[in-house]
Amino acid sequence: MLLFFIGLILGAISILGLEAAAVFYLINRLTEKARAKSSKQSAQVLDSQQSLDFAYNKQGFVWVLESEKLPKDKLPKEPKRKKDTLEVYPVRKYAKIKDQTLLLKESDGSQTAIPLKGCVIEAVSASTLPSRKW
What we know:
alpha+beta
């Protein structure tokens, strides 16, 4: 009978030990995932080897959606209720970010300056094609 109680107590202790080890393992695994997420976010901020000039002066080609430009005297006579859709088309422009300003260069050489302070990025998209169009 004594042997039965000793076996019962050792079994209960071993089950409690296994449960404690499993909880410890799960806690360590969850904290590793949280640390990995925070390290990825901190690495995306700014590489210390990267120059600040490179970080603030970006340039290249972008696709901008523009609405169709119609002369004012040739506007179609439509009721106002039919203007639910806006037709746009993509235009490739040379863009440069300098001093918190987006500079878009038109094909005729003129420039449009858009201040970026306080702006929010709504959508960014590109395909795997060489044109990187949507």
